[in-house]
Design a protein that fits this description.
about 240 residues; mainly beta; Jelly Rolls; 1 helix; about 0% helix; about 45% strand; globular; RmlC-like_jellyroll; Cupin_2; RmlC_Cupin_sf; Cupin type-2 domain-containing protein
């Protein structure tokens, strides 16, 4: 599979069944979108003010452009006069959250002048996460790869996604899929790029043994992390 582009307004349905975790990518463009269980739906609002309905609690959330969410289980988006992207992680039980809107620049350093922000963090080490990536104008990233696929959406700006075999133009509303180990780089025009991108796994994050609650609990001056006999057993 080569890197691929899709137009948000074309309402593509993308399935990555050979990857782990298995995902489906759906979009809404001025219509409603049903979100089915099982799995967790990670979404981003590209334009408009849709309503997100959470079936488990029978409650609704009014979203704004640039907001993002994680919805485990079923629900739906009332997307009249709005548009966005939903990535369904079929074998992942995430936590419900709504966040945003996107900030104007990232909180963390990235490469070649870019920055990033962790929008939806991994609950535990290895879990999926959603990032915002911010690239300044007029740059050409160093050619690089990732150990797992990437699925993202261009929010603002323009440029290209370039591989040794392809030169793919990017503009607001462009969806992209980059396979694992596929060499690529982002190149930006004068406006730069802001992108939201799903990472299906994460090499960092908390564990049952190392997390803020455990680490900062002290027993006779020793962190509970160092006292495994006290740790709760979780299957």
């Amino acid at each position: 599979m080569a890197s691929s582009l899709y137009c948000l307004s074309a309402q593509p349905v993308i399935e990555l069944n050979q990857e782990f975790p298995r995902i489906q990518v759906h979009t809404w463009w001025h219509h409603s979108l049903e979100l089915f269980a099982p799995g967790t739906h990670v979404g981003f609002v590209y334009q408009g003010q849709p309503h997100l309905h959470r079936a488990a609690q029978n409650d609704d959330y009014r979203l704004q452009p640039g907001m993002y969410f994680s919805l485990p289980g079923s629900g739906h988006i009332d997307g009249a006069a709005s548009a966005g992207m939903v990535i369904t992680l079929l074998r992942y039980q995430g936590m419900f959250m709504v966040g945003g809107p996107l900030e104007s620049c990232g909180r963390l350093a990235y490469i070649n002048g870019g920055t990033s922000s962790l929008l939806i963090p991994p609950i535990c080490r290895g879990d999926p996460c959603l990032h915002g990536m911010y690239l300044p104008g007029g740059i050409e990233q160093t050619l690089h790869t990732h150990p797992s696929y990437r699925v993202g959406l261009v929010v603002t700006g323009g440029g290209s996604l370039t591989t040794p075999q392809q030169h793919l133009p990017l503009q607001p509303g462009t969806l992209f899929v980059i396979p694992a180990h596929d060499q690529h780089r982002f190149c930006t025009d004068d406006t730069g790029l802001i992108v939201v991108v799903l990472h299906p796994d994460s090499p960092t994050g908390f564990t049952h043994q190392e997390n803020p609650m455990m680490t900062r609990t002290l027993v006779d001056g020793r962190s509970a992390t160092e006292l495994p006999q006290l740790h709760t057993s979780i299957e």
